Structures are given as structure tokens and as C-alpha cells.
Task: structure prediction
Amino acid sequence: GLFEQFPCDEIYGMHNFPNGQHGKVGICKGTAMAGAAFFDIKVTGKGSHAAVPSDSKDALIIAASLASELQTILSRNIRAIDACVLSVTMLNAGAAYNVVPEVATLGGTIRYFKDEVYELAASRMQAICDGFAVAHAVEITLELRNVFDVLVNDADLSDAYLDAAADIVGTENTFEIEEPLTGSEDFADMLKIVPGAYCVVGH
Result:
């Protein structure tokens, strides 16, 4: 409801870019930053004493194998020319040296530039989780939350933004970014409603 309360024709944003060159302003026209989804996977097996693991359905081992298998989505399902990043960034299980854990959890992100690429990755994640659950006779749940949309800069308004930046920092300190960034930004949600552009300011 933001733009119902505060209507506007165009919108512009800036991103503090500590890894950039000091005082330089850059814009990537068109698709500029990736969309991102966060995921949580819970593996519920059967715990046991570590001395008798044959009595268990080891959630930790299953989760570790699952983390590795998820990487095949990129190499065997996503076309090489369609950029996508799938990162498992968390694996948590167990609390004792002598207990095989009953539960293990995984978490991470998917980054993408096309909605159909995300949907393919998400469907393959679900299929792999379902397959692992059947193969190991355990329960596996997948929760996916699409947190950031793909950020798309209007080409003409990007030019206008660079012209305005040049008045402040000089033309020699403005540039076009040739490749989109795999980072994500919630300003993308605003650009889906109102046309505009999003620049990076180097520090």
C-alpha cells in the first residue's frame, strides 16, 4: 500500500557498496540483482546410542548426503547459460558425543535471475527431499520462502540517473555495470510497481 499512500511516477535508490571504487556511481541496466529464496529442511529420523547405530535412522548422515545431492540441481537441471546459485549454509544436528541424533536441519538460499529458473530449482528440491524420505524411511519437510524479487532497472531511467550522478561526481566517476549482481535487494519489490533505477555508490 506504500504507493497508494504516496503515489509517484518514478523511484530511485542507492546501495552503499563498500567493495566498490570510492566515489564512483554505477548502474546495471535491465536485470541488475538476483531474486532470492530462503529454505529450511528438516530431517526427522530415529535416534540411538552411538554404540548401536544400526538401531537408528541417522538424520545427520541423511542431511549431509542431502546437502551434497542438492548441488546436482545446478549442474544437471539448470542450463549453463541460466545463472543460479544454490547454497546450503547451515547444517545442525546432535548435542552429544554418544548419541545419533533423531533430527537434523539444513538451511540456505537460492539466487536466480529468472522466475522459471527458481521454480525449476524449487521443484527439484522438493522432488529430491521426497525421494530421500522414501529411500531412508524418514520424514523430510521443505519450507521455501521467496524473500526477494529480481531487481530490474528501467534502461531509460538508468541513463537519467547516471546523468544526475555525473552532475555530482563527474562523468568520469559514473559507469555502467555490465553483469548483474547475485546479491539481492528488497528495493526490487518497489521497482515491480513503479519504474525506476537502483545504483551502487562505491566506498
